[in-house]
From TrEMBL:
Zn(2+) binds at C110, C113, C131, C134. Residues 32-102 form the DnaK suppressor protein DksA N-terminal domain. Belongs to the DksA family. Its main location: cytoplasm. Residues 44-105 form a coiled coil. Transmembrane segments: none annotated. A zinc finger (dksA C4-type) spans 110-134. It holds the Pfam family zf-dskA_traR. Transcription factor that acts by binding directly to the RNA polymerase (RNAP). Required for negative regulation of rRNA expression and positive regulation of several amino acid biosynthesis promoters. Also required for regulation of fis expression. It is found in: Cytoplasm. This is RNA polymerase-binding transcription factor DksA. Keywords: Coiled coil, Cytoplasm, Metal-binding, Zinc, Zinc-finger. Residues 106-138 form the Zinc finger DksA/TraR C4-type domain.
């Protein structure tokens, strides 16, 4: 279980404590990029381990139950697990895209307006590619299009 940072009230992602900014520090310097790379690598590894556990669980638990109710219950359980793993697979792809942005020195800035996303927002969502204002606006537009 990740350790929480009591001082800031922020949970550590993937067991990595939140970054402590230093006064006058340049935004997205090498230390910050290394910090987020560490978080993203650890998170990706956790997700991959979960995928492996699910695969092993499904292989070990797969049974041909003669009772249709038991068989249906198992199929439903497997279906839910596969849906969760599909979401995690998409998240792994997003993590890898973010790691690529770090390598290209293009991480931490809004894809829409170009301003700094901010250390605290990136701590909460390391794969964020928009500042909070642009993301909020995008969500409003999405709701209007759906409605």
């Amino acid at each position: 279980m990740p350790q929480g940072n009591k001082k800031l009230g922020v949970l550590a992602i993937a067991g990595v404590e939140p970054y402590q900014e230093k006064p006058g520090e340049e935004y997205m310097n090498a230390d910050q990029r290394d910090h987020f790379k560490l978080i993203l690598d650890a998170w990706r590894n956790q997700l991959r381990e979960e995928v492996d556990r699910t695969l092993n669980h499904m292989q070990d638990e797969a049974a041909n139950f003669p009772d249709p109710v038991d068989r249906a219950a198992q199929e439903e359980e497997f279906s839910l697990e596969l849906r969760a793993r599909d979401r995690e697979r998409k998240l792994i792809k997003k993590i890898e895209k973010t790691l690529q942005k770090i390598e290209e020195d293009d991480f931490g800035f809004c894809d829409s307006c170009g301003i700094e996303i901010g250390i605290r927002r990136l701590e909460a969502r390391p794969t964020a590619d928009q500042c909070i204002d642009c993301k909020t606006l995008a969500e409003i537009k999405e709701k209007q299009m759906a409605g």
